[in-house]
Amino acid sequence: MSPRMSLCSSGWFLLFPLALIGCSSGSSLAGKVDPPPVLTLPFQGEFRVTNVSDHEYPFQFQDNNGYLLSWWGEKLPGVDGHQGYDFPMPEGTPLLAIYDGEVAFAGWENPFYCPSLDKTVSGLGVVLRHRLPNGEVFLSIYAHLSEVQVRTGDQVRAGQVLGLSGNTGCSTGPHLHFEMRRLRGSAWPVFDPYGWSGEGEDPWSKHPSGVSSVWLWAEGKAPPLFAEVSLPPNPQPTDRAPVAITKVRYMGVRDALNPNNEFVEITADPRFASAPVSLKGFFLQNKLGETFAFPDLTLEPGASLRVYTGQGNPTQEALFWNRTQPAWDNWGDCAQLVYPSGGRYRVGYRSGCTWAQGLGALASEEARILRDAHNLPLP
User: Which pTM value belongs to this model?
Assistant: First the structure.
């Protein structure tokens, strides 16, 4: 890890014009009552996450240790030093205010150099200022929008549409970059609304420019955090499997505590399965060779079935591996559907498969990590 740096250090990687922040040593949050969990969803629907907030040092490319330290204490592949959450989603997805507040900024950010694109860019974004019930002030930041539907100074209510997602600015793919800041003195250190549930104190709170994070989402309103590859059955002309892997969800929040955050979905391709397919003799296997044996049941043409890693009551749509630990490696794995004949249908992510029936390149593209940066002004 590189030496500690103040929030007021210079460098493009801090992403915000520091003259607008009014840096100071700040005041301690000691003695304050933590704000209650009141935030609501910033979007409707379920979208995978490619980058989470790095609790070791949440300013892009700072410690160069090559991984993220997630809020549940797990080291994950991603953009080292990332200071928010990246949700890939179709352009034009409505983005919603997470709480009542005032629009501190809405529009085009000041142009800046984007290393990922090797050019000067400017993106659309919205910054909201919120005062929570305990009196503390927070910012929520929405970046890379295609359209903004509010103006600076507007008062907004929770759930109000702020604009539409996009791919503007320093972005390598359509997504929402969502970020929060917590007022400390006159500075705005990065804050993680998912809190910290790893061992010991939040590492970010120990930095001179850091701040502690607490869970702020209202019950049932936290955007789910997961990573997955999803693709149609038999996407290549040479693939003609009657049953194929169509989705692998491999990073659920705290999946070590709840293995059912992971699953593999298989689908009977009606182009090559004209009748119900018996799954007797089929196996699901990871890169370590650990296997799940399918029971004697049938899958109708066009139907899908999910195999969850943990425990549960099996149904026609869901089976359970009955493991107490994750089956799929967040750093890369190879999901293999093994047929009674010994043939295999492979889907890999993060280079988990050395060979994948022509599916490797597609799965790798699905799982690629977005890179982004932002230059939205803070109050």
Answer: 0.84
Question: Is 189 in contact with 169 (CB distance < 8 Å)?
Answer: no
- Find how far residue 82's CA is from the centre of its chain: 11
305: tokens are 């079935």
Helix (H) or strand (E) holding 367: helix 360-367
Residue-level pLDDT, tens digit, the chain, 379 residues:
222 222 222 222 223 332 233 332 233 344 467 899 999 999 999 999 989 999 999 887 778 888 999 999 989 888 899 999 999 999 999 999 999 999 999 999 999 999 889 999 999 999 999 999 999 999 999 999 999 999 999 999 999 999 999 999 999 999 999 999 999 999 999 999 999 999 999 999 999 889 999 999 999 999 988 988 888 898 888 888 999 999 999 887 777 778 999 999 999 999 999 999 999 999 999 999 999 999 999 999 999 999 999 999 999 999 999 999 999 998 889 999 999 999 999 888 877 786 655 444 444 444 456 677 777 788 8
CB contact at 8 A, 141 and 117: no
Burial 21-42 (b: 16+ CB within 10 A, else e): bebeebeeeeeeeebebbbebb
List domains and CATH numbers for the chain: 12-224 (2.70.70.10), 232-358 (2.60.40.1260)
Is residue 345 within 8 A of residue 320, CB to CB? The reply is no
Question: Cβ–Cβ contacts within 10 Å for residue 290, how many?
Answer: 11
Residues in contact with 315: Cβ distance below 8 Å, sequence separation at least 6, in sequence order: none
Number of H-type helices and E-type strands within the chain: 1, 26
Residue 261 CA to its chain's centroid (Å): 14
